[in-house]
Amino acid sequence: MSHMTYLEAAVVGLVQGVTELFPVSSLGHNVLIPALVGGSWASDLNVAKPESPYLAFIVGLHVATALALLVYFWRDWIRIIGGFFSSLRVRAAFPWLRLDTRDQKLAWMIILATIPVGIVGLLAEHAFRVIFGRPIAAGFFLIVNGVILYCGEKFRTHRSVQADQAAAADRAREQKLVSAGAGPPDPPTALEGSPPQSGHRALQPPSSHQAVRQEEMALAERADERLAKVGYAQAVIIGSAQILALLAGISRDGVTMVAGMARGLSREDAARFAFLLATPVIFAAGVLKVPDLTGSLGNGIHGQILLGSALSFVGAYVSVRFLMKYFQTRTLTPFAIYCFVVGLGSVIYLGLIK
User: Fold this and answer.
1) Which 3 state secondary structure label does DSSP give 101?
2) Burial classification of residue 179, based on how many CB atoms lie within 10 Å of its CB (0-12 exposed, 13-18 middle, 19 or more buried)
3) Are 7 and 301 spatial neighbours (Cβ–Cβ below 8 Å)?
4) What DSSP state is assigned to residue 191?
5) pLDDT means per 10 residues in the chain (354 residues)?
6) Number of neighbours of residue 68 by Cβ within 10 angstroms
7) What 3-state class would DSSP assign to 40?
8) Which residues contact 159 (CB under 8 A, 6 or more apart)?
9) What is the model's pLDDT at position 41?
10) Rounded distance, CA 199 to CA 217, Å?
11) What is the spatial distance between Cα 17 and Cα 272, in angstroms, rounded to a whole number?
């Protein structure tokens, strides 16, 4: 079995955590880096090799990445999971009743949007890896990823631009309320006038940390209000974009954001929905590889797995905190340029020079 050093595990773990959430393709980077470094890295970290412990390692790191997303969005997931179970109770008691609360709709949107990539991933992951999981292919698809991100920004719909303005107005209102020293009022928690799901926040001067948390929670709830209005069919279309990420070099969050903006979401809401959609997919992919890591493929690299997972968790958590702020006011264009330049450079180096 191939050996994996602690340095290799540390680099791969950190790269996995950061690039899984940045729209630059974690799998693409984890295929390209060993090939570009060469030597023992190329032999130890070959994702296309049959029964590769490296593939099990990097997919296993998805568990750490998903845990970082769960830690960051834990309050949101409590609401969403609560909405799912409340929808089951409502449907059991009143089968004819429409599900119309924010959290009920968002829970089912995430479930339905995850189904296409789940089916394709289970049926075709091996074929995608063997055919397209090679360094030259990863470099080519990184170029494609850059083009997708650039076109997503260049040809944004008018609805998406208007949604940006609406999200900015919501942020300004919440900041004004918090800076005035009052806890922001609960946004409506159900669509079309349904009763609220929680009580009114007490009006009290918050501490600096409390003010930040109150603002974040209020903005998250308002974002989910906007997302819940997208509807199930549009959610499935957006979620299906994740299938492209089975190609090494195509970013899951990047293509999902572009699909969301194409369907009229603001950049901020598209990023939030992409991260929420990615959580169950990333977690499931990682869990499926855990038996490989605890079995024969993981022999001799358990310490490396722990180190890589720890760094993947830290990288993912810092990345999601940064990106949720970044996409409030900034674009995908820098990531598009990065992917195009790195992808083109990799193809030239691996195909013509090396």
Assistant:
1) strand
2) exposed
3) no
4) G
5) 80 94 94 90 76 75 93 95 88 63 93 94 76 86 98 96 92 79 50 45 54 78 93 96 93 97 96 96 85 75 90 96 95 98 96 77
6) 25
7) helix
8) 264
9) 87
10) 14
11) 17
Q: What is the pTM of this model?
A: 0.87
Torsion angle, alpha carbons of 141, 146, 152, 154, to 10: -140
Neighbours of 116 (CB within 10 A): 16
pLDDT confidence of residue 50: 62
| Confidence (pLDDT) at 124 | 82
- Beta-ladder partners of 190: 101
- Reading the block at residue 139, the tokens are 């470099």
**Helices 74-93 and 53-72, axial angle in degrees (round to 10):** 80
* Residue keyed to tokens 């360094």: 135
Classified as helix, coil or strand, 231 is coil
Task: Find, among 330, 340, 223, 252, the residue nearest to 22 by Cα.
Answer: 252
Instruction: List the Cα angle 165/224/164 in 5-degree steps.
Output: 15
Integer CA distances (angstroms), 264 to 105, 239, 325, in order: 18, 14, 20
